[in-house]
Design brief:
172 residues, mainly alpha, 78% helix
Length: 172
C-alpha cells in the first residue's frame, strides 16, 4: 500500500509539468524521488530498519507537513483558506524539513548501510554498473545535504513570496 501511495505521489510531478500547479517539475521530482527511494528501496526492503526511531521521525515529519499542506491546497481552491493556515503552510517546514531529513531520512540510510552490504541488496540491478547499491547509497548520503539544501532554499523563497506579499497587502 505504501508503495502504491508513493507511486501515485508522482502525480504532483506530472501536475507541475502540465502547469496545473505552479511548482515546476525538478523540485517536486527531487522530493518524490527521495521519498520513494526511502520508502520502497530502504524501509520496505530492509526489515531490520523498519522499527528504528529514524523511520518514525521521518514519517511523523512528512505526515505533519502533508496534514497542513493538503487542507491548505483544498481550501485555497474554494477560496476559503484562512490566513493562519497559509502562515502555517509556509512556516512549519522550517522545523519539519530538517527534522525529517537529518535524524530521519539521512540517519536511516546510514543505519541501513551495514544491512545493504550484508545482503548485497539490488546486486542484480547494479551488476550492470561499476558500483554497488552500497556505493550508490554512500554517494547519496554525501550528496543529500546539498540537494536538500536546494529544496530548503526553494521553500524559503516560496515562503517569502507567499507571506511577504500577504503582509504587504495588509499594510497597504
Amino acid at each position: 500500500m505504501e508503495g502504491l501511495l508513493q507511486i501515485i505521489g508522482f502525480l504532483e510531478v506530472i501536475h507541475g509539468a502540465l502547469g496545473i500547479v505552479p511548482t515546476g517539475v525538478l523540485l517536486p521530482f527531487m522530493q518524490w524521488g527521495g521519498r520513494t527511494h526511502f520508502v520502497l528501496a530502504i524501509v520496505r526492503k530492509i526489515t531490520e530498519v523498519q522499527k528504528l526511531p529514524s523511520v518514525f521521525i521521518t514519517f511523523v515529519a512528512w505526515s505533519l507537513a502533508e496534514v497542513i499542506r493538503y487542507p491548505h491546497y483544498a481550501l485555497l481552491c474554494i477560496g476559503r483558506c484562512p490566513s493562519w493556515l497559509t502562515y502555517l503552510r509556509y512556516t512549519a517546514f522550517i522545523m519539519l524539513y530538517p527534522v525529517g531529513l537529518v535524524p530521519g531520512e539521512m540517519w536511516l540510510m546510514y543505519e541501513a548501510l551495514p544491512f545493504v552490504k550484508k545482503k548485497n541488496l539490488y546486486s542484480d540491478f547494479f551488476a550492470a554498473f561499476p558500483f554497488s547499491y552500497y556505493d550508490f547509497l554512500e554517494v547519496v548520503l554525501v550528496c543529500y545535504p546539498f540537494l536538500c539544501f536546494q529544496l530548503y532554499l526553494h521553500l524559503l523563497k516560496q515562503r517569502q513570496s507567499k507571506l511577504g506579499r500577504h503582509r504587504g497587502k495588509k499594510n497597504a
